[in-house]
Amino acid sequence: MDNRDIKQFKNVWVFAEQRNGILTPVVIELLGEGRKLANEIGVELCAILGGYNVDGLADELIRFGADKVYYANNELLKNYTTDGYTKIIIEAVEEFKPEIILIGATHIGRDLAPRVASNLNTGLTADCTKLEIDPEDKKLKQTRPAFGGNIMATIVCPERRPQMSTVRPGVMDKAVEDADHKGEIIKLNTKLTKSDIRTEVVEIVKTKKDLISLTDAEFIISGGLGIKNADGFKLLQKLADRLGGTIGASRAAVDAGWIDHSRQVGQTGTTVKPKVYVACGISGAIQHLAGMQNSDIIIAINTNENAPIFEVADYGIVGDVYDVVPKLIELLDDDKRLVDLFNSNRIDVSQLQ
Amino acid sequence: MIFKKEHELLRKTVRDFVEREMATYPDEVDEVGSLPKEVIAKLVKHKFISTIIPKEYGGAGADYVSYTIVMEEISRRCASTGTYITAASSLVALPLVNFGTKEQKEKYLRPLAEGKYIGCFGLTEPGAGSDAGAGQTIAIDKGDYYELNGRKCFITNAPICDFAIISAMTDKSKGTKGISTFIVESKWEGFSHGAHENKMGIRGTETSDIILENVRVPKENLLGKVGQGFKIMLNTLDYGRIGVAAQALGVAQGALDEAIKYVKERVQFNKPLAKFQNTQFTIADMATKVQAARLLVYDAAEKKDNGQVPGLESAMAKYYAAEIANEVAYKALQLHGGYGFIKDYPIERIYRDARILSIYEGTSQVQQMVIAGHVIK
Ligand SMILES: Cc1cc2nc3c(=O)[nH]c(=O)nc-3n(C[C@H](O)[C@H](O)[C@H](O)COP(=O)(O)OP(=O)(O)OC[C@H]3O[C@@H](n4cnc5c(N)ncnc54)[C@H](O)[C@@H]3O)c2cc1C
Ligand SMILES: Cc1cc2nc3c(=O)[nH]c(=O)nc-3n(C[C@H](O)[C@H](O)[C@H](O)COP(=O)(O)OP(=O)(O)OC[C@H]3O[C@@H](n4cnc5c(N)ncnc54)[C@H](O)[C@@H]3O)c2cc1C
Q: Which of A252, A287, A308 comes nearest B136 by C-beta?
């Protein structure tokens, strides 16, 4: 395959990552974004799906907008392996020649995409947050944050195909489900054999994520003196569990003996920079702010509307922690939307009501 | 500087007290982290804690020179005890003496002088140190009482206090003219304190946050007038500074004492260190600076006793004495060599204790600002 003959390449592909027969949420986002790109270039939107007896997923992909689903059904694809999935994708690319491949920047996606790209000898942009089609030559303009988010780089792959991107989960709009959308399922007959796969999955362990360290956590729910007692942290832990985050604390809460010093956020504790920092009953002394003010989003819950924490908060809720936090958990329990809100970096507290 | 007979007598009394009661005690309080109750009781009995509180309210009714003597001599042995005395007798007593009503003086100043109450002075906040006007603590007028909310930090004696002098914002729109001062009892609901800070020096004093959560303060506990708070607090610091300056002088003298004693005993190259010219010159420098500080400090105290306002002199005295206390302690430790680095010798503690002097009751930089404000017109 000569991947420099770019005219031979057509269509936008989305890698349909699945775990245990369930599509990863980012796939629906990729289909939403892929649909826009495909329409702009005037080509079809396709998905590539691997797995073992996951036929239902192919239909789901079509309902979410795929015109074609390339489906490799093989026992060897039951669990993700780098070798197995790389091979089926390369085989399919050589046969069907897509011009764009989008892959979610999950742990699996970040492992798979560079392997595929180097095998195909093409370009890959990792962790994109914005994709556009250049109106002049229809090439894909891939934008991603670099240098710790301080620079936005727009990258083009001019001469080789497919153009590959991994896309950050949570930034693209989801595709809308449409039961009437029609599409075609194309079975792939892979030459994959056991000997192609050099790794063997022995066991997949699901940890309850209580071991997340403060510096790694994407969501930190922090409690201060305003939570009144050590039990307050159990409530915050519930919210943290719901979001896959962890709990932090102010020094006052540590001094009160409610929680260990290792949880202290601030000048003399840990400096954190999560996606979302929820300050519950924390006044916002400068010594605390020094440790968390660079969080992407700060949500403050405090009964005192004049508390200095509101000066750094992106979203402020004036109210009692014991009213607001259970309400948030309730909303999270019965409304998946809230998870999406949190995930999407766009939280509008009015939507909590 | 020629002292009056009564001042010389007082100095002798304090020195005897220090010899008798405080021989080994500074190292103990440094270890334990608090002052023993018996010693506090004795400080009360001798009225060292109430030098400048008028006699009619149970104090010694003495002048500022006397207060300075007490501070110098006590701090010369133990800086923690010096801090305890300034916190109680000047920072807390002064605003009550100068701005309190008769009832307030009866209710708070007298028990303070008599050692029945321990007081503290709550101005500093996590976000408002040198910039004392930036406090966030608020007091809302609820008709019968004020409701206070906020957090003070680094408050000497907070964990053991019976009442606190607290500054709080009564009218945010007026800036520092919207601050008022209150007498707040620690037993009232909503008053609590934070953990005892683990400090480098003056470890014998207890320092912590004060937390005020919906504390109801009766109207009669407003000190001075509404909006006068900032003036009250700054006025208190202007005079209170003389106390810290005297403390710094005492610490510097104490360090010099240790150095002189040690260089006469320690032999190297077959001679006591005191025989080396370098040692002599170093000691000469130290002694000269200590004496210069002494003159500045007593000058400020005398001016105050003569009815003048020693804002400039007290700032100069505090600034200079605090800085040279650090310098003298440093040099004294150097003269001890490796032994000075070991806790068995008092200079190690003195060196740590000295460090706070150029920070609290206005940092050296704040003193420079005050001095420049007076000098550059
Ligand atoms: C040497 C030193 C180092 C320090 N380092 C740190 C540090 O690393 N990290 C740190 O955090 N601090 C540090 N501090 C302490 C800092 O100055 C503050 O004292 C501390 O951050 C205050 O904690 P807080 O906000 O939990 O408590 P507070 O200031 O008491 O605030 C409690 C807040 O809870 C609100 N509240 C009360 N009830 C409720 C309710 N039911 N629902 C909602 N809100 C409510 C109140 O309105 C208030 O705003 C340090 C201090 C010192 C002296
Ligand atoms: C052991 C201890 C006991 C204390 N006891 C009490 C007490 O009983 N009651 C009470 O109210 N407070 C008390 N304090 C607080 C003390 O008065 C403050 O720590 C002090 O005023 C300095 O404030 P800060 O720590 O916030 O430092 P900051 O104001 O943050 O100063 C930090 C540095 O910046 C410098 N700086 C600040 N502003 C300027 C400027 N404009 N120009 C040049 N330099 C500047 C300072 O000089 C300093 O070097 C105590 C503190 C300690 C450590």
A: A308
